[in-house]
């Protein structure tokens, strides 16, 4: 099996995106290519068809490789909960929360057994493995128990491309410094350097290339240009911050998403933000709320703490003023739970708060259980009277990730009907307030449905006296175009002939040592 591993001089240098690009490049060549990342730390996750949880970046990489996402692509996922603790997802299932010390000093090497098992299964079914590292491989305080960078490269004997982000500055020093901090065996695995997010005239960078190659003895295999508006899902909140900084669109419809401290699954709103007549803004403070056409409370990894943040920051009062003035409000997952009368956490699953008063928009109470619900769903919206219009939907694909069980304290209308799948019974989901101004749901991904998304936006348009529009975006086609464009740019920027030769040479050396089948 041929493999290539992408590591960075720091977090957010573009490892995930370049891994996605290589997956599509190799997929176009007819290879059976699969992405892999041993361990992710992210709040933006996904649920596979078999109900297992994994990082969002490997989902995009799987799509680029023409594959259905599967948890073997990301066997370990850490979801920060606050106070230096994370929920540990092993092979797609939560095994509880651990402190950073408990995990790194005691459990991570045990989890590496699952990493090796996942790799063994992938090696049976695929011929090319594109592996992503995390952060930097040169964090000397973490190396002894690191299971995502050089431990994986050495286990696979995979050639490594070391990536630096020149847009941040200090790219040359970070490449040289990273290599200096690696041991001899690790440096030998680094077969090339990549400069990412380059702006300007590449020819002016020639002296720097010469310096790097002479100083490190490693070839510079590519200078990848800065790519604007890639349209590919991110899992990192840093990506969200960068997107906000670049947000300059002023559109007819403004949707305000409350930016919770532990906001999760922010990709729920990417499809809305991509619409030409929609501006999505992330709101942290009451004065930023303004007069939106719609407010959304998103998912949260720590719902009670985030609910207290909404209350103590003054956002609760600002939201209430807007809703009383006729602004519609939607809650997704944790945001849906906040819309109820109370949230109870008797087992202290998410925090030390036994019970927190909800926002009181819907007649319900949520109690956190120790068992987590993770499943893909197919839902209908038989006819929801929302904000003066009827929303309809059929066969909408989504997924659930939540700890809570919600009980209703009064009769309520449910907006979504979930079809029975994999032995489960059909059921209703969510709740709609009687005046049709507020609704919530546990379903992530609803806005990815082109027809439902456009109906929702048109409802907001009609209330503003604007004419409704036909469907403007095909989400699936848009993603495919994004993967193709990314692959085209990266393929022309990297010396792919040398990359392929390096991969083939390393695979051949393994076979010569009797390490391949």
Oligomer: single chain
Major sheet, described briefly?
6 strands, parallel
End-to-end gap: 9 Å
User: At CATH's second level, what is the architecture of the largest domain?
Assistant: 3-Layer(aba) Sandwich
Morphology call: globular
User: Regarding CATH, which class of the largest domain?
Assistant: Alpha Beta
Low-confidence runs (pLDDT<50, min 5 residues)? none
Beta-strand percent range: 25-35%
* Total DSSP E strands: 26
Mean pLDDT: 93
Question: What Rg, in angstroms, do the CA atoms define?
Answer: 24 Å
The CATH superfamily of the largest domain turns out to be P-loop containing nucleotide triphosphate hydrolases
Number of helical stretches of at least 4 residues: 16
Short description:
Keywords: Cobalamin biosynthesis, Glutamine amidotransferase. By secondary structure, the protein is α/β, with parallel strands linked by helices.
Describe the protein in words.
Helix 1 (15-28) crosses helix 15 (475-493). A hairpin with a 2-residue loop joins strand 7 and strand 8 (93-99). The protein has a six-stranded parallel β-sheet, sandwiched between helices. It is 34% helix and 29% strand. It is of the alpha/beta class and 517 residues long. It has two domains: 2-231 and 478-511, P-loop containing nucleotide triphosphate hydrolases (Rossmann fold); 253-465, 3-Layer(aba) Sandwich (Rossmann fold).
